[in-house]
Amino acid sequence: MITPDAVMLSYDEPLADKLHARLQRVLGIRAKRLHGVRGMRRAYRLAAELVDCELFFLADGDFVIATEFDITTVEPLADDVSMRVWRAINPLNGLIYGYGGLKLIRRSALRDLGHAVDVLAALPGRVEFTAEVAGTTRCNQSPFHAWKAGFRECAMLSRGSEYGMSDQGSADRIAAWQHCGQGEFAQYAVSGAHEGVAFAADFARRPREFDRLNDPDWLLARFTAVHGEQAVVG
């Protein structure tokens, strides 16, 4: 058993306040909050400065932790592991994998973060993926958030997983995002998935353009250009 710290990293998620309170209640510890920081790499590095422990839980602003998650069963990371990822259920397509899942991460690893579009893929050391499901990713809190989830994930999977996922594994997940729309605002996630694949086909080998996947203003502008202002919040 370990006694880590916890941080929720949120930006503009409508349910973030409620999910932060839930995270604290289930973990049974105070979860710090970093909100609205522009630049994902900057936000992750700032999160490392909020905590007092080398190991800490990191949750996104759309993560719904399962009530049965038991912090007392969590083991420390091995010396060569920089991050452990618990799986999350995706309400848009039924997929259960690391996307949007809970993380246990080393503060020192975040301070030495390299460069990757999927930012945490640039941590030094090994990433450990567990079979355990820790909750649900509520990435469909609005039409824009659902679209953004499908767009970013499928663009990154189309270029090639930065976590070493097989090509077939990536293709299977893309297919699920594109064809298995379910739940609230599912049509926007499906549209985003198709648009993300097309974006990767055009810009996967142009790093400056591809890195726009981490620019919230650019993503919102692209969404509204196609789907209209009225679709931003539903």
If you had to describe this structure to a student in words, what would you say it looks like?
α4 (143-159) packs antiparallel against α5 (167-179) and α5 (167-179) crosses α6 (186-203). The protein is α/β, with parallel strands linked by helices and 234 residues long. The chain starts with a strand and ends in a 7-residue tail after the last helix. The chain has helices at residues 16-27, 40-50, 107-111, 143-159, 167-179, 186-203, 207-210, 216-227, and strands at residues 5-10, 32-35, 55-60, 63-65, 81-89, 96-97, 103-106, 126-137. Strands 1, 2, 3, 4, 5, 6, 7 and 8 form an 8-stranded mixed beta sheet that branches.
Provide a quick synopsis of the model.
The chain is an alpha/beta fold and 234 residues long.
Structural class: alpha/beta
Number of helices: 8
- Reading the helices and strands in chain order gives EHEHEEEEEHEHHHHH
Mean pLDDT equals: 92
Estimated helix fraction = 25-40%
Largest sheet: 8 strands, mixed
Specify the overall morphology. globular
Q: In terms of per-residue confidence, which ranges show pLDDT below 50 for 5 or more consecutive residues?
A: none
Quantity of strands, as a count = 8
Q: Beta fraction of the residues?
A: 15-25%
Give the N-to-C terminal Cα separation: 43 Å
Compute the CA-based radius of gyration. 17 Å
List the SSEs and their pairings.
Layout lengths: L4 E6 L5 H12 L4 E4 L4 H11 L4 E6 L2 E3 L15 E9 L6 E2 L5 E4 H5 L14 E12 L5 H17 L7 H13 L6 H18 L3 H4 L5 H12 L7
Parallel strand pairs: 1-2, 1-3, 5-8
Antiparallel strand pairs: 3-7, 4-8, 5-6, 5-7
Helix pairs in contact: 4-5, 4-6, 5-6
